[in-house]
Fold these 2 entries.
Entry 1:
Amino acid sequence: MVQAFGVAVVGFGWMGRVHTQAYARVRHHYPHLALRPELVTVAEEVPGRAEEAAAQFGFASTTRDWREVAADPRVHAVSITAPNFLHREIAVAMAAAGKHIWIEKPVGLTARDARAVADAVAEAGVQGAVGFNYRNAPAVEAARHLIAAGEIGAVTHARIRLFSDYAAHPEGALTWRFERERGGSGVLGDLASHGADLARFLLGEIASLTADTAVFLPERARPTGATAGHARAAGGEPGPVENEDYVSCLLRFASGARGVLEACRVSVGEQNNYGFEVHGTTGAVHWDFRRMNELGVSRGTAYQDQPVSTVYVGPGHGEFAAFQPGAANAMGYDDLKVVEAHRFLRSVAEGTPYGATLTDAVHSAAVLDAMARSAERGTWVSPEPPG
Ligand SMILES: NC(=O)c1ccc[n+]([C@@H]2O[C@H](COP(=O)([O-])OP(=O)(O)OC[C@H]3O[C@@H](n4cnc5c(N)ncnc54)[C@H](O)[C@@H]3O)[C@@H](O)[C@H]2O)c1
């Protein structure tokens, strides 16, 4: 028996839109899902934006005050897709009101914020899913299985990269992302959070690390109107960039493997150059988000000159079969959010978590805090997830 299930979205920028589309599509791909999401309400502070969302996607109501969502008995689950500084307050209030939450990374400004949200979710007995979407790619899941099965031998070292040009334009607006108070860290929370999650997902816990950070564009123009995503603000009053554009980090995994994680938001010539290379004693596995459905795999007994083959993921890998009937029919970024929506709603229906949870968010955030600490002190440090 399929049950109607009221959902709400708080913050209708890029991610609010993607979550909404995922709710709308999830039953197309997962017809056996026991819940049928219904778009009850959308909260957005920019005047008119919620109304536009309702007109386009069919939300039954709109509000400018997210507190009304917490008090709304029609709402069973809430997507929290507002800027980082609001994550903790909104998520704790929603969980306390008995709403299941699907929240975007990095879950607040610090590991303490992520911990507070994790605790609120546990105390309320609701489900909490987190937007670490790259781990949902079938090729990434395939890489994880291959590594865990020992197909590349014992892992020796890995490189994880997240390079983007989204903030490279000198006229890129000084949005919440560049402020300590509203964004928290810079590229750490924005991109390295995904890298930390991928590192843990593929290779296990990080025992210690040492990091270096830099700001390459120290000043930007303040926005002259409401923003969403990565807006431009030519002519706006200049203001300081308060958080890092770039991080490089050496990792030591608990397994003994070594790693390098590098992320940058101002890399001219790089568009979503996200990926990893993992090396083992007998092979290697490579993934590049821009060729999301391909995995480079080298395995065998040759050691030297061992060929690398391209595997096109297919219905046998991860969630691929829910989207395409055969290998090399491409899945896209938004599909990863449909996978996430499905795992979230399935968690609610079955009362047990599937996919990335708030525990994963606490661990990723602890790695980011450790990177910031290390960059400040110039020393090796250990990530310490707050208890
Ligand atoms: N998983 C991913 O791949 C991914 C990608 C981009 C962003 N994110 C995360 O998603 C979140 C949102 O990012 P975005 O790119 O969509 O940002 P955005 O700036 O495009 O959207 C944020 C929206 O929240 C609204 N908002 C601000 N204050 C509000 C309030 N008090 N009540 C209701 N709405 C409010 C803004 O007006 C805006 O429309 C961030 O935490 C970010 O880290 C995740």
Entry 2:
Amino acid sequence: MHIEIDQDVCIGAGQCALTAPNVFTQDDDGFSTLLPGKEDGGGDPLVKEAARACPVHAITVKEATG
Ligand code: SF4
């Protein structure tokens, strides 16, 4: 799994960090960012929930293939 956050789209709603606090956090400006080492989601099943919860669909989750 690979997670991308489009910070140009993110409005800092914080839903991702609320939904999956072990993966997402908010930077000093309030925009979503990934916690260190969690670019792959860390196997957290809440990642997909967080992507769905984002009101502006700034989070893209790509499943690893193969
Ligand atoms: S839920 Fe979406 S808009 Fe809100 S902080 Fe996370 S990525 Fe940004």
